[in-house]
Amino acid sequence: MKQPPEGPFPPERLARFARHIVLPEVGGAGQAALERSHVVLVGLGGIGSPALQYLAAAGIGRLTLVDGDKVDASNLQRQTIYTTRDIEHGKAVSARRWLANFDVATEAELHDGRIGPDNAPALLEGADLVLDGTDNFATRLAVSDACVAAQVPLLSAAVGRFQGQVGAFAGHRADQACYRCFVGDAFDAEDCDSCAEDGMLGAMAGWTGTFAALHAVRVLLDGVSSFGDPQWGTVHLLDGMTPAMRSFLIAKDPACSGCGSAAL
Question: CB–CB of 239/249 below 8 Å?
Fold first, then answer.
């Protein structure tokens, strides 16, 4: 991660982030680090929408927005940055417009297409963290492999019906698992269930997305403030029916085709 800038915040930024700065667990050094951070947000749907809102609210200085879909009326039940005026418009363009209205100081880049092996290296260049909120395993695994290759940490989030999951992975490290260690190779095809078939509580997407944004702040503040704790390889399961949350640890698979000996 880039080093935070020295010196005081401009008055308008100091007022905006005062409630972060007064937290001993974040402080001025933590807020400065967030403002110097670059997060690539892949997927601007049910998870990406609330995640974007709270990443921007946290003061992340640079965001790359990746999504090739257009806004549909059915999205509005859970994708909170869009309005009826955005229907049939590209999600990436609409998300950048929301961001410009929210905080003009945030640097934003967009890619209104899918991420894959051909374009991932350019999209991930200079990133401190990738937050993946896409809805199919093929893309999630492609993003995971790209993160391992680029040596960029990955925060993976998924949601369906009344359940969500969020996990941070650093598969480029010799002792840490990647997302492929978690799910294996069986889901490379785009065959996962969709929320159109199974349904999804809109607020469940909000809980998962905001929890992912919270965890992104923890990852970005690692080594900067006491709140920084990436919890690599830990997957948090969010249960909206109970409600409750439980966590478990993923071990690195030495034979993983993404980060193990088979990938070398």
Answer: no
Element (H, E) at 56: helix 48-58
pTM of the model: 0.93
Which has the closest alpha carbon to 31: 19, 46, 41? 19
Four-point Cα dihedral 130, 135, 139, 140, nearest 10: 50
Q: Report angle CA 122, 123, 124 to the nearest 5 degrees.
A: 95
Question: Phi and psi for 96 in degrees, rounded to 5?
Answer: -65, -35
In this prediction, residue 191 carries a pLDDT of: 52
How far is Cα 162 from Cα 238, in angstroms, rounded to an integer?
Answer: 8
What b/e string do you get for 214-242 counting C-beta neighbours within 10 Å, with b at 16 or more?
A: ebbbbbbbbebbebbebbbbbbbebebee
One-character DSSP codes across 90-123: BHHHHHHHHHHHH-TTSEEEEE-S---TTTHHHH
The angle subtended at Cα 181 by Cα 219 and Cα 69, nearest 5°, is 70
